[in-house]
Amino acid sequence: MSVINTQTPPTGPAQKVAEFHTPLILGEHGLCPGCGEPVALRILLETLQELNLVQRTIGVVGHGCYGSFVRIMDIDVLQCLHGRAPACATGIKRMRPDTAVFTLQGDGDMVNEGLQEVIHAAARGENVTCILLNNGVFGDTGGQQTATTVLGQRTKTSLEGRDAEKHGYPIRIADIVASVDGAGYVARGAVNTAREVMRTKRLIRNAFESQLAGEGLSLVEILTMCPTGWFVTAPDGPDYLESSMTAAYPLGVLHSRSAEAN
Amino acid sequence: MLDSTSEHELLILGIGGQGIQLIGKTLAQAATSSGRHAMLAAEYGGEMRGGPSQATVVIGERPLRSLPILASAGSAIVMHDRFCGVVPERLRAGGLLVVNSSIVDPAAAGDGYRVGGLPATDIARELGKPQTAGFIMLGAFNALTGLVTHEQLVDAMRSLLPPYRIEHADSNAAALLAGSDAARDLELSGTVAA
Amino acid sequence: MSATAPVAEMAPLELLEGSTAIARAAILSNCRFFAGYPMSPFTGLLENMAKLMPAAGGVCINAESEIEGVNMVIGAASTGARAATGSCGQGIALMQEAVAEAALNETPLVIFNMARNQQDYFQCTRGGGWGDYRTLTLAPKDVPEAVEHTQLLFHLADKYRAPVILYGDPLIAQTRVGVRLAAPDLEPLAPKDWALDGTMGGTGKSRQVWTWAMGKVTDPGLGPDGHWRAVADKFEMIAAAEQRWESAYADEAETLVIAFGSAAKFTEYVVDELRAEGHSVGWFRPITLWPFPGAALAQATRSSRRVLVYELNAGQMLDDVRQFVHDRDTVRFIGGVSIHESGLSYGPLLDAPVLRDRILAAMAQPTER
Ligand SMILES: Cc1ncc(C[n+]2csc(CCOP(=O)(O)OP(=O)(O)O)c2C)c(N)n1
Ligand code: SF4
Ligand SMILES: [Mg+2]
Prior knowledge:
Chain B is of the alpha/beta class.
C-alpha cells in the first residue's frame, strides 16, 4: 500500500462527505436522524452501479420506513404488498430472467407478515436477492415488537421487555433460509460502524454475484439502527445495536453455494 | 340419424369400473371427429369403483343447446340396475333403452320405451375380455342409432387410449364389432307410447 | 350486446374439457405466466396450465398459497407479461388484498374463479379488498363462451390496466364440449410503456408501479389523492363502457326470468320450452356481473309483470336486480342455496325440471300490477 504523499496537492478537487452519494439517489431521504436504513440503501445502490447492473435491475419494495425510498431511488420499482416481495420478485424474474431482481424488506415485512414467501422463494431456488433491513421493530408503525425483536428488548407491545414466556422467541430468518436447499447465498451484516458498512457492502455484492451466477435465492440480512423505535438517541443507536442485536444475530456468511463448492 | 336442428341426448348409467366414462368419451370424440358438435358431461364423484357412474352425451349438427345436466334424454344405455332410477325420470317416452341383460332384466324397464336387451357381460366373457362389456353396449347402441360410423367409433376408441393401454385397442375393437353384430339380431321390445 | 372475441370459424372442432379449453384459450391470448394453488373445481385449470405452459415458452407455478400465487402474478404482470391466477371461494377470498392492490397500482391480470356454485357473486362484484376499485367480471354460460370470455378478459385487463375475473363453475370446468380455438382477433392495444423492464435505471426516468403513485422527488406523481381519484374515474368509465347482457322476448313477455352463468343457460332452455307451450315468458342474462347491465335491465323489465331471479345462492344478484328493475314490486326470488353432497358442486336446484316448476309456480301467483 502506498503512503499518501502530503507534499503535493490532491489530483482531484476536494469533496464534502455529503457529496459522496450515488447518482441513483435522487434526493434527501425523509427518515429519522440516526436511522440505519438509508445507509443500507446507499450501499445497495452503489453495488448495483459497481456491478454495472443499473440498467437491468428491478427492485421490489415492501412496507416499512424504507418504503419511502421508492421516491428517491432511480431504479425500476414495484412497490408491493406488505410481506409479498419475494412472490412478486418471483413473477418478475421468471418473466425477465435477464434482469437483476432484488427485494427490500424489513423484519416486520419479511419475518412477520411474509414469512412463508421468503422461505418458499428460497426453496424454489428463485434467482433473486432479498435484502432484509432488520431493526427488530415495526419502525414505521411506531416501534412495536416484531418476530426478530431480541429477548429483553422493550417495545410498545412488550413494555417490560420481550419475555420468551409471554412473547415467544425471536426468529433467525437468515439461518432458516441458509438451511433451505434452494438458497445460493445467505449472509448477515450490520451498518452500525464504518467497518461493518464496508463489510456489508461486500456481502451485498456477493449476493448479486450469486444471483447472476444462477445459484438460487440470496439473502442479506442487515442489522439497522432504529433509534426512534428503540427509544434511544440517534448517537446511541450504533452502540445499542452492538449490545442488543449482534449477540442474537451473529454477523458473517451463513451459506455460500459457490464457496462450499470450492 | 340427426336432422340439422335436433340433438341426440344419451344417458349412460352404470357403476364405477364398467367403463361408463370411457364409452361416453369415445362416442363424443367420434362425433367431434366427424365434424359434429358433441358434449360429454360426467356426474360428479362418479369415478369410484362400485359407486354410481353416469355420463351424458349430446350430439348435434349445430352448437348445442342441451344442458350439461340433461333435462331429458332420447336414449339410454343401462349397464347396472342399481343405478337406473334416472331412466323413468329422464328418458322420454318412446326413447331407445339399451340394457345389459346379463345384469338387468329388460322387462323391468316397463312400457313406453323401445327396449333392447343385450347380454353384454356374457358376450364379453365369451370374448375372453370381461372388461369390454361397455364397448359391446356402445357398438350395439351405435349400430341401432347410426350416430357415427363404426370406423369413426373404432378410431375414437384408439385415439383415447393412453400409450400404456394401447394393447387393449384390438380387444376393444373386437367388442365394438361384437356389439354391432349383436344389434343386427336385436328385437326392440316394449310398446312405444305416442 | 354479446361478449364475443371473434374466433376464426375455420378452426377445427375439438372435444375439450372446459379447463383444457380455457387454458388453451389463455395461452392463445399470450398468457405466459400462471400461478395457482389447487382447489376443486379450479384444479383442472392449474393442471392444464402446468402441462401446456412450458411448450408455449411460459411459466406455471404451483404456488404455496393463493396469496403467494396472486402476488407472483402481480410481479409477472408488472413486467408487461400477460399473467393469470385462479381458485374459487375461500382461495379467492385470500387473494382480495392483492386484487385491490392490482386495481390500485394498475397491473392487468386475469383471475379465473372456477367457483363451486353461484355463492361468489358478491365476492366477485363487491370484492373484499380495500379502496375504490371494482373487478370487471364475465360470467360465461358454457364452455364455448368461456373460451371467448377468456380471450376477451386478457384484452380488457390490458386495455384498462386492471384485474378482471372470469366467473366459472364446475359445469364449465369439467364438461367436455366441442370448441374451436384460435388466436383472438381483437382491436390493437397501446404498448405497455409503463411496464418494468429494468432498463430505465439511472436515467432519472426509472419506472414505478406503485399504489401510492407519489413519483420521485425529482418528478412527483399524482400521489394517493390524485391517483386514487383517477382510478375511481377509470372504473366509472369502465362501468359505462363495458356492460354486457343478452335477453330474449323481454318486450312481449309477462314474466321475465333473470339468471347468470350456467343458471342462465338452464333458464334459456326452460323458457324456450315454456314458450313452445304458449307461456308468456322471456329471459334476461347479465354477461358482465360487474358492471351490472342496470340500464338494460330497467329497459327490459318495463313491461314485465313478474321478474323472477334464479341464482344458486341465497339471493346475491337479487340486490342488483332490485336496484335497477323497472318496478321493485314485481321481483320474486326463485333461486336458493343448493349444494351437492360433496360440497364441491351444485345441488339439485340447478336442474331444468326444477326450474320449470318454480317458474310455473311463480306464474300461477297473482301479480302486483
Ligand atoms: C397488510 C398490512 N398490514 C399492516 C401494515 C402496516 N405496516 C406498514 S409498515 C409496517 C411495519 C413494517 O415493519 P418493518 O418491515 O420491520 O419495517 P421498518 O419500518 O421497521 O423499517 C406495518 C405493520 C400494512 N401496510 N399492510
Ligand atoms: S422509525 Fe426507525 S426505521 Fe423508521 S425511519 Fe425512524 S429510525 Fe428509521
Ligand atoms: Mg423493522
